[in-house]
């Protein structure tokens, strides 16, 4: 009998984890009765009662497992690490807040059995804030236009991944993984299934401007050269314009020494403009350097504080539970 791993990243989801576990078990009992399952909750250092609830669920059901991170390792490392710990024939990554519909999983499994190694959900509409949905759409289109690698629009990571692809992720050994880009760049033949994203069932999202910016910069620095190329091209253009203006001013001053008064305004405007351009592109270059630094330092994805209901170490993991 095949086993399906369900990986659920958590952060302050005390109002959702038990309801999600019940929904998943009911789904397996009614829609996927011929499959075994394991549900892996990976908690990113929640400050509420999420861990207590996971421990209780794991005590009641040996198929429910828990990984408790020593600290918050970010919105990308924790889900990625959870996928690496899965031991099933395939793994499904799903959010704890019910914005990834549980009823999509049987559809994923059906396509997986048809031969697809990756089956993912694509948001065609959403009940979230329409402004946020529109901004996300603009962001996806921008990354797709700038990237040398195909990017998947309205894809959050919600999907099914065959164990062969999970093995690819293990061998990749990327300390700053961006799963959405990896699926597009290194993934097998995939099936995309549209769905409408519902609202959060309960609780408050942990996403804020900084987290959204961090996601945007990770995708930009990982899969685009546009920032650096734009800095080079625009810098060269400004250099040419500045030299031309300087020559014009020099000629005008030499020809009309007493009558041509340049004044301070052009100088100040030019200095402020070029200074702001330099600061902007130094920031862009800094984002790339930050990404390079993170990869060179090779820090572990996650350091575990505790794991529950794992009878043995996952393949390729050491005794200190670092990855």
What is the topology?
Blueprint lengths: L2 E8 L6 H14 L5 E8 L6 H11 L3 E6 L4 H11 L5 E4 L11 H9 L4 E9 L3 H17 L12 E4 H10 L6 H8 L3 E8 L11 H15 L2 H30 L9 H33 L6 E5 L15
Parallel strand pairs: 1-2, 1-4, 2-3, 5-7
Antiparallel strand pairs: 3-8, 4-6, 5-6
Helix pairs in contact: 9-10
Explain what the structure shows.
The protein has 323 residues and is α/β, with parallel strands linked by helices. Helices cover 49% and strands 16% of the residues. The radius of gyration is 25 Å and the shape is elongated. The two termini are 29 Å apart.
Fill in the keyword field for this structure.
323 residues, alpha/beta, 10 helices, disordered C terminus
Question: Could you give a short description of this structure?
Answer:
This protein is an alpha/beta fold and 323 residues long. Helix content is 49%, strand content 16%.
How do the SSEs run, as a string of H and E? EHEHEHEHEHEHHEHHHE
* Proportion of helical residues: 40-55%
Shape: elongated
Radius of gyration: 25 Å
Biggest sheet: strand arrangement: 7-5-6-4-1-2-3-8
What is the terminal-to-terminal distance? Answer: 29 Å
**Count of helical segments?**
10
Say how many strands there are: 8
Overall residue-averaged pLDDT value: 81
Poorly predicted tracts of residues? 312-321
| Biggest sheet record | 8 strands, mixed
Structural class by helix and strand composition: alpha/beta
Strand content: 15-25%
């Amino acid at each position: 009998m095949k086993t399906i791993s369900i990986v659920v990243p958590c952060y302050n989801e005390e109002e959702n984890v038990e309801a999600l576990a019940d929904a998943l078990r009911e789904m397996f009992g009614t829609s996927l009765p011929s499959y075994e399952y394991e549900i892996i909750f990976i908690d990113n250092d929640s400050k509420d009662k999420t861990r207590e609830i996971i421990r209780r669920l794991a005590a009641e059901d040996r198929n429910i497992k828990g990984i408790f991170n020593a600290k918050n390792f970010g919105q990308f490392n924790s889900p990625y690490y959870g996928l690496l710990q899965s031991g099933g024939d395939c793994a499904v990554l799903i959010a704890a807040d019910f914005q990834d519909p549980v009823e999509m999983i049987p559809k994923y499994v059906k396509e997986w059995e048809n031969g697809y190694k990756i089956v993912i959900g694509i948001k065609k509409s959403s009940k979230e804030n329409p402004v946020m949905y529109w901004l996300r759409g603009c962001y996806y289109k921008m990354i797709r236009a700038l990237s040398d690698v195909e990017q998947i629009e309205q894809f959050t990571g919600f999907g099914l991944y065959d164990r062969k692809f999970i093995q690819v992720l293990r061998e990749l050994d990327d300390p700053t993984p961006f799963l959405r880009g990896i699926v597009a760049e290194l993934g097998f033949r995939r099936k995309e299934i549209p769905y409408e994203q519902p609202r959060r069932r309960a609780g408050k999202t942990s996403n804020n401007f900084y987290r959204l910016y961090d996601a945007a910069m990770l995708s930009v620095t990982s899969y685009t050269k546009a920032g650096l190329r734009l800095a080079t091209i625009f810098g060269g253009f400004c250099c040419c314009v500045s030299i031309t203006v300087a020559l014009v001013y020099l000629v005008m001053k030499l020809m009309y020494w007493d009558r041509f008064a340049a004044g301070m305004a052009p100088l100040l405007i030019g200095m402020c403009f070029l200074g702001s351009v330099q600061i902007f592109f130094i920031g862009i270059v800094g984002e790339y350097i930050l990404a390079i630094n993170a990869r060179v330092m090779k820090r572990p994805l996650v350091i575990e504080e505790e794991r529950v209901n794992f009878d043995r170490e996952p393949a390729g993991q050491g005794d200190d539970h670092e990855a």
